[in-house]
Amino acid sequence: QKEVEQNSGPLSVPEGAIASLNCTYSDRGSQSFFWYRQYSGKSPELIMFIYSNGDKEDGRFTAQLNKASQYVSLLIRDSQPSDSATYLCAVNGGKEGTYKYIFGTGTRLKVLA
Amino acid sequence: NAGVMQNPRHLVRRRGQEARLRCSPMKGHSHVYWYRQLPEEGLKFMVYLQKENIIDESGMPKERFSAEFPKEGPSILRIQQVVRGDSAAYFCASSPDGLAGARDTQYFGPGTRLTVL
Fold it and tell me: How far is CA B76 from CA A43, B28, B65, B67, in A?
């Protein structure tokens, strides 16, 4: 079992729709959860982080964390073609230590105009 | 406020040569992390450094790879005697002082894309 799992996609959604990106993790002791966006050939860009169970909203983005189910998700409302990118889920604070981010392989999102 | 800087952005080496990648953290950050991203794969942790100290190098290959973060100057990731399998994007990240721990947020540089011919 991979430590952090994401569906590789591509996930295709029409412009204006809600995109839902999911991530599961295996280390129950994980403490912090991050979503990064990575455009092709570019570096990861932090979108959101979440530490506590529940929802956290920032503009069009909502991160959801359920530690009991070991599941974190990212919702993108009113998706735009510029949101088309690979979204990376990262986890830390578990047995690997408090600073070592464990990344999933990413979900490729395509927003269709 | 300048972000994390890396150079060179692209590096081409022939097998057997040395590759030297540089990273300057964001102003006010003294924690530096190196990650490697192979094509179509996620980022893999390599090493975590603070000034003059290697804190965790558990992700570094045992041979040919080394990293340093001197008191003055950028952090350097050195790959000796490169092989084709070293071709990848190497990203450096930094995090703020005083917040080391599970809630530390890492900010990534633009990366160095290494191609080994």
Answer: 18, 18, 11, 6
